[in-house]
Amino acid sequence: MSQAHQQNGNRGGDRPVDDGADSPDDAAPPAPPGPPLAEQASEQMSAQEFEDVVGDALDRIPADLAEAMDNVVVLVQDEPDPEMLTAEDYDEAGLPTLLGLYDGVPLTERDESWSMVLPDRILIFRGPLERWCTSREELVEEIMVTVIHEVAHHFGIPDERLHELGWE
């Protein structure tokens, strides 16, 4: 399974813009039957503990960078919405593998007229992260990496540069 962090493609990321045309190659598989996906994940920590770790990751961002974050909200979601996913975002069992998503316009692409817009969103997906990790310690570390990865997208740092820096 490969780690999946993504930036919304219609706003400066690496995913194609959805032109409304459905392609058989891009069609996401249907959700598997059974309980909601978050319930299928091995619960390594409570929802509150998970959110606390996300908060801890945000607290680790240097103060000058944290102050520079503008018009962005960080949310924890159990699972990605199906419309956020492509065929590559599912594992062999049909479960989503997307760990986090930046949905917005990076600071580097905004100009002085940027105002009166809804906040960008950084989404952290609990179910895929719990399924990805085999221990609580690994889960804490991967939450930290995912939060930093998505915050980097807010600052306009693309996946390629993050990979060069060792943030896989």
Topology:
Layout: E1 4-7, H1 37-40, H2 47-59, H3 63-68, E2 72-77, E3 98-103, E4 120-125, H4 126-132, H5 136-154, H6 159-164
Parallel strand pairs: 1-3, 2-4
Antiparallel strand pairs: 3-4
Helix pairs in contact: 2-5
In short:
This protein has 168 residues and is α/β, with parallel strands linked by helices. Helix content is 33%, strand content 13%. The protein has a single domain (4-9, 43-164), classed as Zincin-like, CATH 3.30.2010.
Considering the chains and any ligands shown, give keywords for the structure.
168 residues, alpha/beta, Zincin-like, 4-stranded mixed β-sheet, 6 helices, 13% strand, globular
Explain the overall architecture.
InterPro entries: Zincin_1, Zincin_1_sf. Pfam families: Zincin_1 (PF06262). This is Metallopeptidase family protein. The protein is α/β, with parallel strands linked by helices and 168 residues long. The protein has one domain: Zincin-like. It is 33% helix and 13% strand. It contains 6 helices and 4 strands, in the order E-H-H-H-E-E-E-H-H-H. A 4-stranded mixed sheet has the order 1-3-4-2. Helix 2 packs across helix 5 (136-154). The longest helix is centred in the C-terminal third of the chain and has 19 residues, at 136-154. The model is unreliable at 9-25 and 31-42 (pLDDT under 50).
